[in-house]
Specification:
Number of strands: 8
Helix content: 10-25%
Domain Cyclophilin-like: 39-133
CATH topology: Cyclophilin
Strand content: 25-35%
CATH class: Mainly Beta
Number of domains: 1
Strand order of the largest sheet: 1-2-7-5-6-4-3-8
Pfam families: Cyclophil_like2
Radius of gyration: 15 Å
Organism: Martelella mangrovi
Protein name: Cyclophilin-like domain-containing protein
């Protein structure tokens, strides 16, 4: 049985490092944080991103055209074209609706709009700015993910 390593491989390391070096400061909000905008159907959701290797790797892939779909009764998900650097993995106990996470099991984004529980399988990427209502818009839609201007 093949086990997933928690260590950073060379490709993940290089992607995260290059995103850190090449990310222009003009993409940062006035408070220094990065803002991610997700558009699907007639909904727009903005997240303030955290600073960790997983976020930097995600940012290096932007913009992305994905598909967002309902999953369970507390989240939407979107599958990425490749797995992200797992260097942002850190336990947390203050799970909150509105968190944006990376699910290690499937390598997808998880957009939580209701309660959820950390089980050593999520990397928190950011938190929603504004109401949760857009995430409760049911269905499967094309999704555009990009940094805000």
């Amino acid at each position: 049985m093949k086990t997933r390593s928690r260590f950073v491989n060379r490709r993940s390391f290089l992607a995260g490092a290059s995103a850190t070096v090449l990310l222009p400061s003009i993409l940062r909000a006035q408070d220094g944080s990065l803002k991610l905008q997700c558009r699907f159907d007639d909904q727009i959701v903005t997240y303030t991103l955290f600073d960790n290797p997983t976020v930097r790797d995600l940012v290096s892939m932007l913009p992305l055209e994905l598909t967002i779909e309902d999953f369970s009764n507390n989240e939407k998900i979107a599958h990425l074209p490749r797995r992200l650097d797992e260097g942002g993995l850190a336990p947390f106990s203050d799970e909150t609706p509105g968190d944006l996470c990376y699910f290690l099991g499937w390598g997808n984004l998880a957009f939580f709009y209701a309660d959820y529980q950390f089980r050593n399988d999520l990397i928190r990427l950011g938190h929603i700015d504004g109401p949760l209502d857009p995430l409760m818009h049911r269905g499967t839609y094309p999704l555009r993910v990009a940094l805000t201007d």
